[in-house]
Amino acid sequence: MNNSVKIYTSHHKPSAFLNAAIIKPLHVGKANSCNEIGCPGDDSGDNISFKNPFYCELTAHYWVWKNEELADYVGFMHYRRHLNFSEKQTFF
Length: 92
Known about the structure:
Blueprint: E1 5-11, E2 23-27, H1 52-55, H2 58-67, E3 73-78
Parallel strand pairs: 1-2, 1-3
């Protein structure tokens, strides 16, 4: 079985982008933004980018659902709250 994975990071202002093949940054609320942050936005194709003030990161979910070729596994994370991919995990 060939499983593909794609994780989208939601950005709304300039910040560092993670460099990994499975991670794709996405500018959420780009339709309402005056900033160009250097990554694709949720304002192309079939989108609800202009509704970002009401739906927040869900505009990214909608955009991916309607415009991307979906991977077998799709994930989302915030630009400041990253998933931990390390082999050694510490639990409280």
